[in-house]
Amino acid sequence: MKNLKKLSALLLALALLLGAASAFAEETWTLTCPNGAPALSVATLAAARPDDFTFIAADTIPAAFASAQADFIIAPVNAGAKLFKAGKSTYRLAAVVTWGNLVIASQRDNFSIEDLNGNKLTLFGADTINASVALYALKQFGIEPELADPLAGAAETKALLETDPEAIVLTAEPMFTAAKAANDKITGFPVNDLLDNGYTQAGLFVRAETLEKNPELVKAALAEIEESCGLCMSDPDKVVEALSALEMKFPKAAIPGCAISYVDAAQAKRLVEATVEIDPAQFGGEEPADEFYFENAEK
């Protein structure tokens, strides 16, 4: 009888232990992120937990916000702001993670910023925040180039850069580094070199439902993502290794030009507003409301 009681107690303890372990295992979070430079910010986490991370094409970002399936989304700050303002997203900005990866490049001999005077610049994307920032940065130095018809994306301007020795284009990392590696005549200068603090390019957004139901999980996730972002500077080899595990090709030399740095929303707000001033239309016509920002009280 005593043995039976001991066995029952052991089984009960085991059941409680397994239940606790199961609850702990379920204590995870999911994240959706566009392919390309923003993926650097979470590469090491995604390589360790691939089932919890989804990488998507940039043009599907609005659908990701609308579906509200992921706990977190990394996306252009202006896109998240416009959707939030329009009532099409409940995601709030938790941090800015990328600060501009744009490069103005050419095959021209001794290419410099002055070459843009009297020559055409080919941008990628019509009426985009990237184009607005690049033109704003140039204007600060008295450069207002003539504009050629814009191409669809950075990959397309990279192709023009590689095939037309006279072209001057706006492209982005890692395309620029890849093009330069293939053709040593290509040179360029980062748009961030013309700006004081870069610009608020991609942000980390947190779903309102996740914030409400599990704030402690959110705080833990933000700490993990901040650490992951830091590896882009402190251990880029580890980031490249993680990208390889995710079957993403990304040259190590391009990582610094992607300007990955985790800055929480409270600190980044002023810089978001500075980017809004460059082209308010890209943010829905005005600065985001205070409720757009999630400010982690423990930061």
From TrEMBL:
Pfam families xref list: NMT1
UniProt KW Signal keyword: yes
InterPro entries per record: SsuA/THI5
Gene3D superfamilies the UniProt entry points to: Periplasmic binding protein-like II (3.40.190.10)
Record-annotated SsuA/THI5-like domain positions: 84-238
Signal peptide: 1-25
Chain coiled-coil ranges: none
Top-level taxon of origin: Bacteria
Protein name, entry field: Putative sulfonate/nitrate transport system substrate-binding protein
